[in-house]
Design goal:
The structure is a homodimer.
Chain A: H1 4-15, H2 23-45, H3 55-90, H4 97-138, H5 144-166, H6 175-206
Helix pairs in contact in A: 2-3, 2-4, 2-5, 3-4, 4-5, 4-6, 5-6
Chain lengths: 207, 207
């Protein structure tokens, strides 16, 4: 059964005046929800009459979705740590020149980390979207709407992660790194937007 | 701090072979995450230098977001109950004519409930989207990406709720009810799609 209290507690943390957990954690959780729903479609399909032919495919998709879910779940804490690290760097002393240089370097290092976590989240969400197509194409018809919810969650997560990359890249002094991150993100967004809509339409037409 | 274990436990429930919690609960949670992020933007904005003029607006938006978050959080359990009720109706005996009639009536009543919960979720998500615009237009710039994540979560939630209405309406014998539900949903989707994109673009351009 659903753990109502635990969800309420997390949502309370999200709503609070503390900036963590924030949008970065929310992105990772939405991605993990997408992966979990893909898993569920696969799990429910196994053993259903008329679906014997897709059993090995559903096992493979389900196992992959579980691997991605674990990665995305771990990113919730990683995002909080990256954000808190960045805030700590900004609070470093900036009196003497040496302190200033140390602080600037710490900020740049923290900014890279705070960029890499959501970039990785975006990559993994793109993989979840690819899995949602396989689950939605061949999964048990009675739970196929869950595949549709899965792709919506994963795509919203990808775009949310993108915002968390974009908020950090302008302040990065390593422009090569910043532009490579933005370019990779643009490719992921350009590919996954139409693909997510296609999976949603595929599901919608089965209902 | 974030309650990592509670989130992991919920995601495990979602991924499992049991169809509840499923996409309907995930929709309500995504909507609640959207409302929570709107709240957070308002909460962080309060007391910030240069934002004195929007304080009463942020208080009003934040209070409204908290009201919607509570409604959406309650819908997680309501969706599970509606789905389980429908499954129970399908399992009723169908031997004698009287049993058949009783079962058919119970199924229709459960289908209505399983339609009304996600329809209400969609309505509330539309309200969250409207609030996300106000928070993103006037909230503290450093957390504005969280307003963008909020609108993405609320819009994905609305479209997810829509799938959970569409999966039930074809089996409804009360066609007037079914068509009114579908028509209301179509209006919400048509209005909220462009509005969500507009808020996302507004946020994106502030980063």
């Amino acid at each position: 059964m659903i753990t109502q209290n635990s969800v309420e507690r997390f949502l309370g943390d999200l709503a609070g005046a503390n900036p963590t957990p924030g949008g970065g954690s929310a992105a990772a959780i939405m991605g993990a929800m997408g992966a979990a729903l893909v898993s569920m479609v696969c799990n429910v399909t196994l053993g259903k009459k008329g679906y014997e032919g897709v059993e090995s495919e559903m096992r493979a998709v389900g196992a992959e979705a579980e691997r991605l879910r674990a990665r995305l779940t771990a990113m919730v804490a990683e995002d909080v740590a990256a954000f808190d690290g960045l805030m700590a760097a900004y609070r470093l002393p900036k009196g003497a020149d040496e302190e200033k240089a140390h602080r600037a370097a710490a900020i740049q290092q923290s900014l890279k980390r705070a960029t890499l976590v959501p970039l990785d989240c975006a990559r993994v969400c793109a993989e979840v979207i690819a899995l949602s197509r396989r689950a939605s194409e061949r999964g048990y018809l009675n739970v196929i709407s869950d595949g549709g919810v899965g792709v919506l969650a994963a795509h919203a997560a990808l775009r949310s992660a993108a915002l968390n990359v974009y908020i950090n890249t302008p302040a990065l002094k390593d422009r090569e790194f910043a532009e490579a991150a933005a370019a990779e993100l643009d490719r992921l967004l350009a590919a996954c937007g139409p693909e997510s809509e296609a999976v949603y339409t595929l599901v919608r037409n089965k209902l």
